[in-house]
Amino acid sequence: MPRTLVTGGAGFLGSHICEYLLEKGHEVIAMDNLLTGAVANIEHLQCEQFKFIKHDVTEYIYCAGPIDYVMHFASPASPMDYLELPIQTLKVGALGTHKALGLAKEKKAVFLLASTSEVYGDPQVHPQTEDYWGHVNPVGPRGVYDEAKRFAEAITMAYHRFHGVDTKIVRIFNTYGPRMRPKDGRAIPAFVPQALRNENITVFGDGGQTRSFCYVDDLIEGFYRLLMSDHHEPVNIGNPNEMTIKELAEAIIRITGSKSKISYNPLPVDDPKVRQPDISKAKSILGWEPTVCLEAGLAKTIAWFEKNI
Ligand code: UDP
Questions:
Q1: With CB atoms 3.0 to 4.6 Å apart as the test, which of 19, 27, 135, 189 could cross-link to 121 if both were Cys?
Q2: Among 69, 145, 176, 224, which one carries the catalytic annotation?
């Protein structure tokens, strides 16, 4: 039975990964300091093959016994979180990635880094391909996340090249699904509760900025295929279905049958104007592409929010 450590295992993506790995027959250790994660996300996973360790991965990671895979997902990951937790965001991307890589080296484990489309910044190449180096403001409010993940990619490649660790890097584009925190400041977990309560939908700017949203189940399948591949360079995983934020707000109003109206609010600093993954690489090397359309994914997400807010 493969034994896998998931850092950030009690977070939105981490908890879905733990669930998926248990279904695949892995023994799973979820590690989380619960800064933005929550025990409620993993309560339903309790079984003999699953263990939760409360630990801050910026400190030395001790883990008894063999580990076959390390999936490093610990990090604040929404714009509001990294505005409120700038130092922790930098520390987990830098020191936390160093510790998680050190553990993978020690255990001879395969290592997968959760990186982000934020490494492309406010992109001048569209859609974004993996060979684009990005357009990031290092000293802006988002710099703490973007630069931490850029450092994390650099140290991951260094451990691969210098120490021979079997590493993978996934660049994750916008995602959504059950267990997103309602107040994390991101568009979908903001808009869905607003629509369900018939409150104004708080679109930032004129809503003309674009994003491409991938349902969480599709994303996790992509992570697993990358983990099992022999590819070491970064791979984009996301849904290329690009839309404006205004179109997203209108879709959520329509699907929920809400009476909400759109209200226009100031655009956050350095908010990227466009974002869309080029997933040719994931298609060719992993045989992966998303299968869940926005309507179906939103329906499942809305159903979860209805139960949980
Ligand atoms: N956004 C918005 N209203 C909100 C939250 C977000 O209009 O209440 C916008 C945000 O400015 C951005 C887009 O929606 O242009 C996606 O934001 P999110 O935080 O989900 O992800 P990211 O900016 O990291 O892509």
A1: 135
A2: 145
* Model pLDDT, residue 183: 81
**Same structural domain, 127 and 195:** no
Number of domains the chain is built from: 2
- 132-146: b (≥16 Cβ within 10 Å) or e: bebebeeeeebbbbb
96 and 236 co-located in one domain: yes
Give tens-digit pLDDT for 228-254: 999 999 999 999 999 999 999 999 999
Ligand 1 proximity of 211 Cβ (cutoff 6 Å)? yes
Q: Same domain for 138 and 267? A: no
- The stretches in the chain having pLDDT less than 50 are none
Tell me how far the alpha carbon of residue 186 lies from the centroid of ligand 1, in angstroms.
Answer: 5
For residue 182, is it within any domain? no
To the question of pTM greater than 0.90 for the whole model, the response is yes
First to last CA, the chain: 37
The domain of 92 spans 3-177+214-240+277-291
Q: Which of 204, 246, 298 to mutate to test the pocket of ligand 1 (most atoms within 8 A of CB)?
A: 204
Q: Same structural domain for residues 199 and 140? A: no
Residue 156 lies in a domain: yes
Q: Give the 3-state secondary structure of residue 181.
A: coil
Which residues are within 8 A (CB) of 308 and not within 5 positions of it... i.e. 6 or more apart? Answer: 182
Asked if residue 104 belongs to a domain, the reply is: yes
pLDDT digits (tens, 9 = 90+) for 276-287: 999 999 999 999
- Report the nearest atom of ligand 1 relative to the CA of 118: 24
